[in-house]
Amino acid sequence: xxxxxxxxGAGAGIGGHVAERFALAGYHSVLCRRSNKEGLEALVxxxxxxxxxxxxxILNAIxxxxxxxxxEKVELNIGAIDTLVFNLGAQTGMKALNETSxxxxxxxxxxxxxxxxxAAVSVLPRMEKRSRGNLLVTSATAAFRGxxxxxxxxxxxxxxxxxxxxLNAEYAAKGIHVAHILIDGLVDSPDTLGKIMGKKAFSxxxxxxxQKNDGLVLPEKVAxxxxxxxxxxxxxxxxxxxxxxxxxxxxxxHKINGFD
Length: 260
Prior knowledge:
This protein has a single domain, classed as NAD(P)-binding Rossmann-like Domain (Rossmann fold, 3-Layer(aba) Sandwich), CATH 3.40.50. Strands 3-2-1-4-5-6-7 form a seven-stranded parallel β-sheet, with helices on both faces. The chain contains eight helices and seven strands. The longest helix is centred in the middle third of the chain and has 29 residues, at 102-130. The mean pLDDT is 90. Strand 2, helix 2 (37-49) and strand 3 (53-58) form a beta-alpha-beta unit. It has helices at residues 14-24, 37-49, 66-77, 102-130, 151-171, 193-197, 199-209, 219-231; strands at 4-8, 28-33, 53-58, 81-86, 133-140, 176-183, 240-243. It is globular, with a radius of gyration of 18 Å.
């Protein structure tokens, strides 16, 4: 039976490309996303057309027991999850503090932190029994630095980072590789950046910085990094890394409010 790579947050960007790359490497990829069943089926069909194995599920991660039930279904009907890629976004929009409702603040936490907690509680004990496994968690600059308008997003993503550190401390010695991956830059993804910017602005950005210019983070190249992580020898496991385009300045070198 093939190893299983389950991707929670498998859109057309990083998540979908990770699923495709792992399937190409011999895994059975399980793609989970909140909506757009047609898009999900297209991604699964693309993988299968290449002669590789994939299954798709519509999964609303904030619904009660949704993650737990899906993981159990995969374990029972498809196979043991060797790698869980938690790629769920948690961007609720830039809002000043007095514009941030308690509902918005809680939603960001549920998406960024609570959903990861539920996934970890469901899959890590199973991996522990097998003495192997990988939990790869996509993160954002906000996990390291909060800016104005990010009360909900930054606090939730920082919680995601601390949860990853805790899981690593608890499970690394049990044979489970936990990695927190900071995507420190704009991603060439129509499902995320494209929707935020709008079609026209996104097209202009692609023309000036994307694709052949390598000025945006390319999802297919991120997928190579994720695959590299699961191939690392345990004597040199990477817990935390950051990814950005060669033209971008690292998050800690940006000026904030005029100060270095």
